[in-house]
Amino acid sequence: MYSQNDLYKISDTLTNITNATASVINVDVTIVDEKLNRIAGTGKYLDNIGEKLNDNCLFAYALKQNESFIIENPREHEACKNCTHKGVCREWAQVCCPIKINRNTIGIIGLIAFNKEQKEIITSNKMNLLEFLNHMADLIASKLDENRKKEEITLMASELEILLNSMNTGVISTGQNGEIKRYNIIANEMFELNKINNIKEIIKNKFSNEKSPISNKEFIYKYKNKNYRAFYSVKPIIIDNEVTGYIFTFNKMKEILKVVNDLSSPTQMTFFSDIIGESINIKDVKRYAKKISKSNSTVLITGESGTGKELFARSIHFESERVDKPFIAINCTAIPENLIETELFGYEEGAFTGAKKSGKLGKFELAHKGTIFLDEIGDMPLHLQTKLLRVLQESVIERVGGNSVIPVDVRVIAATNKLLEQKVKYKEFREDLYYRLNVIPLKIPPLRERLDDINILVDNFLEKFNKRLNRNINKVSNNVIDLFRQYHWPGNIRELENVIEYAVNMCVTDIINIGDLPRNIREQEYENIKESTSPIMTIKELEKIEIKKALDRYGRDNKGIEKSARALGIGRATIYRKIKLYNI
Ligand SMILES: Nc1ncnc2c1ncn2[C@@H]1O[C@H](COP(=O)(O)OP(=O)(O)OP(=O)(O)O)[C@@H](O)[C@H]1O
């Protein structure tokens, strides 16, 4: 919608039109807007520009009429009927013509005769005059339209500029041959574009005038004599099937890594307080690990499977200065041998058949400024051990298929449950790498060497699985705890955690008893029964264990139950009753 404001914006044009019209016709001209404000005028009206006309005047009538007309008998004409100025009106004749845009009247242009001669000019040439004035009204309307479009374009241009400058990506538009035309702030900050004329000076020989788009190609550029890595993409501007220029977008490698790390870093942080244990053994290890967190030196964590090596590695990272940077964990046995190298070091575009076109970043690059956790390091293939040694010694990596070195700042924490010294002896692990990794050794004791932790671990896991499985089990019986203290725990804390989860699932009362434990632990108990020092089980617990054992062996169908009853030396009815009683 157009408003009176739009008319004011072209007031210079209106003045020109009224002056030109008045000098050609020799009659005074005036223009009012739809609110009856005088916007332009000649002669007598010159001093009254800006005045507000009364609501019953001729122009108010003309606005309602919405078409051109001539008045030859002012004061008597219907248009003057209610005019409050009728008594002082000295006008001899008038011509009114609406200024219309899209059929809406937004003002009136009028000619006014103040004497007989001027009236004669109007009345002698009515048709031509009306036509002429309509042209003037159209001229004003098209000027308004043009002005509006200009404003829209200016607005769009500044919106686009703000949009481009608020992006985190550098954008440059070029001509057909790469000559730089326009760019945003980020692009200027990256490349100091006041010193550069052509895009080829930035991406060197990588640009040839192509018609198809290119996305995410890596390149190196210089800024203040230092080399930086970035990615660029290009899209041709095609008009009438002809490439008229290109749009280049640039992303700094640093920014991309930040985004990747933000997305891939675990949202849950781990702290030493998450490592449960009150035994002297574990307290000592925790104290030592906290101390070494502050250092940047490589740590080698040793300990049996499930002792909490990864938990320690995470806590060290989140306790260190690198806390805001990524913690990247990689398990050397979980990845096929032929993929570990590219996983760790990445690869260049076209490094091998099947490689992605844009290449791939390795975990070392992703972990830049953070920590990498190399689990099961003892299983790392020998040829990669050499590459890893180089990272540790020189803090650089080389991508597969690449020919340049990339600096990385990563703290390495390695872990193993193997005897690395033995592997070194048998030449399965490089001796120099072993010493390079073992700068700070951290040995996590197995659970059987910290039996005092069993109670607190059991309580924690019971609480965890009560919550997770929506149960309300109060405690674990003393017999079970005694059994746990005798068991050798080859799978350590992980195994204990799994045992509690199993028992919470099996338990039908509010106390976990031996019968609720997995078979391997119960069998351990059976062995213990033979020993005179072993804890005494209730007859009911023993009965439940044996019935379960028989059912597991013979099956739970009718035949299986019959066989079980026979093996247990009880009748069919009894075994059915016991199954129901113990909810087996
Ligand atoms: N002290 C502890 N307190 C609580 N949970 C623990 C503790 N130690 C280990 N866990 C839990 O036990 C499981 C195994 O821990 P983790 O993966 O750290 O062991 P690991 O030594 O790295 O095992 P692996 O050698 O098999 O990789 C995890 O679920 C972990 O949360």
Brief summary of the model shown:
Keywords: ATP-binding, DNA-binding, Nucleotide-binding, Transcription, Transcription regulation. The protein has 584 residues and is of the alpha/beta class. Helix content is 43%, strand content 19%.
Task: Note down, in words, how this protein is organized.
By secondary structure, the protein is α/β, with parallel strands linked by helices. The chain has 4 domains: about 5-150, 2-Layer Sandwich (Beta-Lactamase), CATH 3.30.450.40; about 170-255, Beta-Lactamase (2-Layer Sandwich), CATH 3.30.450; about 265-445, P-loop containing nucleotide triphosphate hydrolases (Rossmann fold); about 450-580, Helicase, Ruva Protein, domain 3 (Orthogonal Bundle). It has 22 helices and 19 strands. The strands form 5 sheets. A 5-stranded antiparallel beta sheet has the order 2-1-5-4-3, sandwiched between helices. Strands 7-6-10-9-8 form a 5-stranded antiparallel beta sheet. It has a 5-stranded parallel beta sheet with strand order 12-13-16-11-17. A hairpin with a 6-residue loop joins strand 14 and strand 15 (about 405). Helix 9 packs across helix 10 (about 310-320). The longest helix is centred in the first third of the chain and has 40 residues, at about 125-165. Adenosine-5'-triphosphate binds next to helix 10 and helix 18. Adenosine-5'-triphosphate (ATP) binds near residues 303, 307, 309, 310 and 493.
